């Protein structure tokens, strides 16, 4: 806490000198060059660091929460607070042994605590380490509000979701451009009578096939996942580590709101995308990590107060996900709240003169109960 | 009813029900069409002997009632009478004023002036022909006092003993008589204009330097105000096992009832029905209501609140909790702050409840569609 205050004056000098640097700057503290981003430790807990805009566009075409995107647009920068759960996850990832089967990590916590943003922080870390990032922004979007539900072309009794698969493939392409040419397929895939992808073709072709032929996009997704699973952490030369990030993983084992033509409910297993994703989440492959978040916000048929893994995943989900490393995400601590408050002040976001006083700060603490999202919404109209 | 002297009891009971219709005269006055001049009224409906007889009957009836109830007739108060009547004549009527009542005839019979003129038809009072003799005579007396004070002032000036800082009357904590009370005093109808003129004259009297001489006269027309905050009940501060001070209080709003325990811990956590207040009140307005009493006395982060609330909707529950928290805070707060809390409206229970739907209307106020024909 002391060093936060002391560095305010230092920051003033630094801002004058380093005004034009768009590399990562640590707010309210000294500036760190790029390489030390990987060395975020407990010392940095509570401080903000900026993500460079170029990275933002490639890594997160679809992953960020909408309110954070609005904040990014307003402040013209993407600042993320370094918090304890993310730090824990990063240390685990650094120390893990990648010849063992992939470890599953589940971020859970009350609504609005910062699970999705922590996940994004960790993903940024992974991508800077050169991992291949497989990010499903919100699994709940795949089990509800689907306009077109086609019966699967490859398997009877399954349903395809072409639009969702198409969107996801496009985003995947933006995120992992450089990997697509390096990885080759290991098997021949036949899409229709006339189209097939041969063995040994680059992944990019597979993805293009899915993008252009919308009908088979869900099967393409399945094939893609299979390829990545087989090849992660494999041979020495083209070795890459795979980070599978699923936000809202409780959607995979919950109920859906989709109905078949005879008005009977569709089970999650009957959806191709969900089925393939479940296979991905099984820890029978090596050379990567599975990072997931539980989310009540988009979930179906779950009460608002549910946030524990047992409640949200259900029995089936819990058995499938077991064993996993649970990481709780909680509301801001005093120090983190202080940091957030100073950040908003610094950005001139809190316009009301009363909010700059001690009394105003106490009111903010009370009204938001230190919950990050509620605090953000509260400050939005101050 | 079985009693020894059935006849007198029945006579007494007869006097119970009868005078109720006349009670209305004192209360709903000042209708422009109804300008009955009581002083000029003829022989009164109730002669003095009649009222005297009623008083005697009341006293005898009181003693009989005490005998019926098996209590001591000497120490039988009005409260005991009310209790006994409610017991002997149970009434299911909702309107309290329609129930049987037994009171002293002076309270029940309207005050009436005696006949104002003699046998020859000449009125006794010199102001009889003004129409409102009591009012005008009062104004005349008051003005006479004003003139007397001025004369006294002049005489003091002549002697050279005139000073402005004489003993002043203390008028704080008292108020002027209301119009209804003045009417009751004078046993006459007064218009609003007359009342205003009376007050102006009184103020003029009080503005003069030597008004303390007429203090007794003026105090007849003033009533004491009660100190509101002395009526507040402050919940007692208790201590639990760890020595932490806590107090309990309850609050109600509409149909919601809340009861809380306020602990002097140091963290600012609030639990309602076992849940965090953020989960229980997702709406900002409810949380602001909860914050108001603590913020008003600047003790935001100091107390822990354990609350249980039931009934009503979310706004009603928030209002009930707010009242309960304010009441519980009274035991941790000084008297001056308690007064300021009372003035801020934190301690007043909100009397608004849902208004009843009336027959012939769609809702409480909403009427059915009006058709011209």
TrEMBL record, chain A:
InterPro entries from the UniProt entry: Ribosomal_mS29, Ribosomal_mS29_met
GO biological process: apoptotic process
Keyword Ribosomal protein listed: yes
Domain of life: Eukaryota
Any GO MF annotation of the entry: structural constituent of ribosome
Keywords: Mitochondrion, Ribonucleoprotein, Ribosomal protein, Transit peptide
Pfam families: DAP3 (PF10236)
Family: Belongs to the mitochondrion-specific ribosomal protein mS29 family.
Protein name: Small ribosomal subunit protein mS29
Organism from which the protein derives: Pygocentrus nattereri
Gene behind this protein: DAP3
Automatic annotation (TrEMBL), chain B:
Keyword Ribosomal protein part of the UniProt annotation: yes
GO terms for cellular component: mitochondrial inner membrane; mitochondrial small ribosomal subunit
Region listing for Disordered, in residue ranges: 343-373
Keyword tags: Mitochondrion, Ribonucleoprotein, Ribosomal protein, Transit peptide
Annotated SUPFAM superfamilies: Ribosomal protein S5 domain 2-like
GO MF annotation list: RNA binding; structural constituent of ribosome
Subcellular location: Mitochondrion
Alphabetical list of PROSITE patterns matching this protein: RIBOSOMAL_S9
Alphabetical GO biological process terms: translation
Ranges of biased composition (kind: Basic residues): 354-373
Annotated Pfam families: Ribosomal_S9 (PF00380)
Keyword Glycosyltransferase: no
InterPro entries from the UniProt entry: Ribosomal_Su5_D2-typ_SF, Ribosomal_uS9, Ribosomal_uS9_bac/plastid, Ribosomal_uS9_CS, Ribsml_uS5_D2-typ_fold_subgr
Primary localization class, coarse: mitochondrion
NCBIfam families: PRK00132.1
UniProt similarity note: Belongs to the universal ribosomal protein uS9 family.
Name under which the protein is recorded: Small ribosomal subunit protein uS9m
